[in-house]
Amino acid sequence: MSRLRHGAVFLAVYAKEFVVANAQVVREVVTPGSGVRPAVLRVPLRSRTDAEVATFVALVGLTPGTAVLEVQRSGAAAGGGQRVELVVHAMDAPDLDAQRRALQRLEDLLLAAWRGAA
C-alpha cells in the first residue's frame, strides 16, 4: 500500500476516534456521574524517531478524554534505539488492555502512513 493510502486510512480512523471521543466527553458533561472509569496506563511505542513520538503524543493529546502525562525513554530497544513508553490518562478506560491496544493500533496506522509500510 502506498504512503498516500496509508495516510488516508490513518486519517479516517483518527477522525472516527476523534468524533467518538468528543461524543463521550459531551455525554459525560451532559449527564455527570454516568459511571466513567478513568485510568492511567502505560503504552509501549514502536516509534523510533523524535518526530514520530512527538506526532503521536500530539494526536493522543488532541483526542478528547485523553492526555499524555509522561514520555519515558529507557534502555536499548530491539532495533538499537531507546524504548519509548507513554504514560496516558484516559477519561474512561474500563479495560486497560483494550485501551492500550487501541492506542497501539493508532500508532501502527500512523507509522504505516509515515513510513509507507504496514
Q: Kindly estimate the percentage of residues that lie in beta strands according to DSSP.
A: 15-25%
Structural class: alpha+beta
Largest sheet: 3 strands, antiparallel
**Secondary-structure element order, as H and E?**
HEHEEH
Total tally of structural domains:
1
| The CATH topology | Alpha-Beta Plaits
Portion of residues within helices: 40-55%
How many E strands? 3
Spatial strand arrangement across the major sheet: 1-3-2
Task: Give a topology summary.
Layout: H1 3-30, E1 39-45, H2 50-62, E2 66-76, E3 82-90, H3 96-115
Antiparallel strand pairs: 1-3, 2-3
Helix pairs in contact: 1-3
Task: Give structural notes.
The chain has 3 helices and 3 strands; from the N terminus they run αβαββα. It has 118 residues and is an alpha+beta fold. It has a single domain, classed as 2-Layer Sandwich (Alpha-Beta Plaits). The radius of gyration is 15 Å and the shape is globular.
Short description:
With 118 residues, this protein is an alpha+beta fold. The chain is built from three helices and three strands; from the N terminus they run αβαββα.
